[in-house]
Amino acid sequence: MSDASEVDTLITDTADRLFSQLCDHESIQKAEADGQASDIWSAFADTGFPWISISEESGGSGGTLLDALEVLRLVGYHAAPIPAAETGILGGWLMSSAGLELPSGIVTVLPNGSQGLAVERTGDRLTISGRGLRVPWARVAETIVVPLEIDGQTFAAAIDSSECQISRMTNMAGEPRDTVDFENVDVFAAVLPSEINLETFRFRGALSRTALMAGAIEKMSQLTVSYTNDRVQFGRPVAKFQAVQQHLVWGAQDAALARMAAESAGREANRGPALFEIAAAKLIANQASARATKACHQAHGAMGMTQEYPLHHLSRRLWSWRKEYGGDAEWSSWLGRVAVAQDADGLYPLITGGSAVLS
Amino acid sequence: MSDLNEEDIRSALDMVLERRNADTRLTTMGAGSDDLDAGRRYLASTVTQGWHVPAWPSEHGGRNASVSQNALIGRVLREFIVPDLYPFAIGLGMVGPALLAHGTQSQQNEWLRSIASGASIWCQMFSEPEAGSDLANVALQAKQDGEEWILEGQKTWTSRAMWADWAICLARTDPGQPKHKGLTMFALPMSLPGVQIRPLMQMNRDAHFSEVFVDDAHLKDEWRVGEVGEGWRVAMTVLAHERAGGGSRGGGDGGAKGRRIPSWISDLRLSDNDQSTVTSDAIMSLYSHDSVSRWTAQRAADEARSSGAPGPAGSGAKLRTVQSYKGRSYLTNRVSGAHGMLEEGHGYIEVMTAPSMSIRGGTDEIQRNILGERVLGLPGEPRLDREVPWKDSRRGLI
Ligand SMILES: Cc1cc2nc3c(=O)[nH]c(=O)nc-3n(C[C@H](O)[C@H](O)[C@H](O)COP(=O)(O)OP(=O)(O)OC[C@H]3O[C@@H](n4cnc5c(N)ncnc54)[C@H](O)[C@@H]3O)c2cc1C
Predict the structure, then answer these.
(1) pLDDT tens-digit profile of A59-88?
(2) How big, in percent rounded to 5, are the helix, strand and coil portions of chain A?
(3) How many Cβ atoms from other residues are within 10 Å of residue A13's Cβ?
(4) Cα A321 from chain centroid?
(5) How far is the CA of B362 from the centre of ligand 1 (A)?
(6) Which of A134, A234, A238 minimises the CB distance to B338?
(7) Among the atoms of ligand 1, which is closest to the Cα of residue B364?
(8) Which fold has domain A198-358?
(9) What topology does CATH give the domain A105-194?
(10) Of B203, B272, B353, which to mutate for an interface test with A (greatest number of A Cβ within 10 Å)?
(11) B133-192 per-position pLDDT tens digit
(12) What is the model's pTM?
């Protein structure tokens, strides 16, 4: 890997091939019914993909955040039913940053940190009780990471999942989003470096979803172009109707927009804090998802509404991811507050300079 | 029957139905519900006096109501608990009116009352794998054989097929005619030998629509609705009633006397993030849109009932009603925050069902084509296959 600002295409080509082979319609349907896809996960993990961007000294696979985000984009593109973001750039990142040893299995995180938990600290031990909501893939995780703040310091608590009570819940896409109950769980309090806190964790979560969404919109757009070129009504492919072409253009525009936003946020995050870019990218991806799912479903007619046709794997994921790590209202208000805090002359530099202007 | 005033209607309905209260909630379009009994009980208890289909003749389960009386009854009915009539909607809203327009006296005698009383459920066998928006491309064949018709082919997306006793089925009787001309409409008993139903699972986990395979099914000629070769005309009547929403009386929200805030608003679970003017603005513009939609749909339905031949107003009504539904489901889900991502979340079924609203009953694009051509008089789309015999046009592209 020569240039840290370039994606390693060897990695992404391999990931693309792997998902193309494993994530067909039937396997995704099956993963939804089973609540997991252990074969897809094993193939993914065997090649070290989950731990890209975590240094080899910390037990990761090396590579940059850009590489990891590109793999996540492919996870979204193929609707791969696996906890790639949780094990890698979220949970794995928190653990390695806190100097904790990475487990060989799946890692997940509490998306809302310690919200809803009662935490007591005694020296370097924590006792945790309470309930974590909508925890991705908790049922198959080996380790559940809780990022939390005590007295202005941020810690990562890595909890063995066998010490928790896990109740199965699912998001609209049929992906596990479990409820996790802790009862006086005793765990080591690993201190995180000062640049990581609950806010930067939330932005990191949003960044992961942005990459996933960019991939899913792109696939959805391609699927729609190909379906409408095959589907004949009134003696011609429906893609020949201008009204349908408008839907196709929305899908394609939104795919390009979301990908551009995700990539520029990723590049910035690879260099340093990228709060402005990530907030903007998540909002853009959220809005692009809403428009693109609407356009792509409409262009498909009744076919897109059935379980037998794969469009729903993408649209239902987008509707769910749109709500994770900040919906439209949250990021709009964050961006609004930041923009208003600049004086009038500061607005344009903020738009062109982004986070660099804020720091 | 002389017209009743509002109070008369209310006290008559009080004898058979329960009033709505603020807690009454209804499911939408059957999504998530398989309850046939509630609708059956409701229809059975209202049929004697013809409350549900007042405009129908009294011998068929109506009360010969005038247009204005019919509208008034509809308004008062909204103060009462009317269950989700989704299973019965094709019969009540589409087949019934089409039989009144195109059916023979004996067909009306045989079928209308059992529709009005909820005793029989109908489904609509129009769409086929190659005939969606291009409905006139129907390929299911009906061949005459003495006093019988032999049907052969496949339908798809047939909602309610698994509950239905009868289907209204569009079939091709003369492949040598241009596509709109060689069609004939039949009533098809779903229990007939040769009729096979295969439910399709939808994205919202409902299995309310099915593929229906018809293999060597023998139909009596007395089940033919309208003349041979007039199937398209009958189909247009059925579809116009579908769009005008004749079937959708009952269900829906609002209504309870004195209640100002519709339940979709009082049910919104606003998070801290959403207690904003942005959300108020969205709620209010949706509320206005919703009210206008309801009036537009009402006007289209009344027009359809009074003329017996509904026009393009129904297309406008359908577009608006769909927009309202989608807007409500989107807003409800948006303000429910991250919890709305879960299957258990508020509005899950609605989000999963919303896209289909712009597709079923004729897509938004097709409704706009109808409005463009029939209301605004815009030039029609080029229809190259209009005069070509169907059998020659259907393969290859034009
Ligand atoms: C939930 C549900 C229930 C249904 N229930 C029934 C039922 O009970 N009985 C029944 O018979 N059918 C039923 N249908 C089928 C429904 O009527 C068709 O889906 C609909 O007519 C559209 O046909 P299609 O799905 O083949 O889409 P297509 O016709 O393939 O359309 C694909 C896209 O092309 C567009 N398009 C097509 N032609 C044109 C044009 N000329 N100009 C501009 N755009 C165009 C469409 O608008 C759409 O966006 C149901 C459908 C759904 C989703």
Answers:
(1) 999 999 999 999 999 999 999 999 999 999
(2) 60, 20, 25
(3) 11
(4) 7
(5) 6
(6) A134
(7) 47
(8) Butyryl-CoA Dehydrogenase, subunit A; domain 3 (1.20.140)
(9) Butyryl-CoA Dehydrogenase, subunit A; domain 2 (2.40.110)
(10) B203
(11) 999 999 999 999 999 999 999 999 999 999 999 999 999 999 999 999 999 999 999 999
(12) 0.95
